[in-house]
Amino acid sequence: MQYQVLQTSQEFASLAGEWNTLVKNSASDVPFLRHEYLSAWWETLGGGEWAQGDLYTVLARQADGTLAGIAPMFFSPNREGEPALLLLGCIEISDYLDLIAPSNLLTPFIEGLLDHLAGPTAPPWTVLDWWNIRDDSLTLPAIKTAVERRGWNFAHEPLQNCPRIPLPGDWETYLASIDKKQRHEIRRKMRRMEESGQPVCWYIVEDEASLDSEIEAFMDIMIQDPNKRRFLTEAMRKQFLLSSRGAFHAGWLQLAFLEVHWMKAAGYMNFDYNNQLYIYNSAINFDFREYSPGWVLLGNLLQWANENKRQFFDFMRGDEDYKYRFGGIAQRVNRVVVRR
What we know:
This protein starts with a strand and ends with a strand. It folds into two domains: about 1-160 and about 335-340, Aminopeptidase; about 165-315, Gcn5-related N-acetyltransferase (GNAT) (Aminopeptidase, 3-Layer(aba) Sandwich). The protein has helices at about 10-15, 15-25, 35-50, 105-115, 140-150, 170-175, 180-195, 210-220, 225-230, 235-250, 295-305, 320-325; strands at about 1-5, 55, 55-60, 65-70, 75, 85, 125-135, 155-160, 165, 200-205, 255-260, 265-275, 275-285, 310-315, 330-340. It is α+β, with helices and mostly antiparallel strands and about 350 residues long. The strands form three sheets. Strands 2-5-6-7-15-8 form a six-stranded mixed β-sheet, with helices on one face. About 40% of the residues lie in helices and about 25% in strands.
């Protein structure tokens, strides 16, 4: 393989088509590795999470010029202040990150990548600090083997659980698979909403003309939660807007709202990607708490996902109890730290 480096936003932007084709064929095909998502992330440095960073994304091409691997990275002091190469997307707002390469090319890509990073043209890094790599990633064993062969130090730190629900493709079959008490609660809250006497509906945003106003409305509901109000700085609002637009235009944004009496009572911002529904963020209007609008909308989304034959309903990072009560099975993300 021949290796090259992207160090400018213009070079990064020019690679969109090839990038997304490789993601589709890679061992880790998740929305957070898509070009439209990572370009939005880089524009805002994660909504202001990082104060500085220099793009240092390494590509590998085969002899015929075909793109074979991408290490989407940037150079910056990490949280401990060490000169580090980190994955684009880290840490807080991108649930699943990884290298990008097909399964059969991942090991040779990693070997060549480490050779390149050990060379004189690489930034003066002391640590590869890669966050949010899933338990089932092929990168974990491949990078460990390659690193230890060089006599470098490899450390692996488990991070958060990421519950996800395998879906049977039928709503009643799904309900029968979860705890009886939970099944009763879902049905009771959905029925109570239907019988409230209020006009009730839920919908998925499909009109591009209203997209920005719907995203803004979602964020305005989010900030009723004090923790989310602190999180949604101006830079983070810009990040949400850019990443949501990119996902919408690429066809994998699912922005859903529950309305009660023509007012937004709850919202979910999800990624409907690769036959899976990734549950990214939620917003609850506290004026409608008596109706449990978050649960009701979540129930409708689970019914939709089953009826539309999605394979998984992925709650992603966070160990909240309700995720397990809805049938989530834990997987995990990890931090990989390499020192030479």
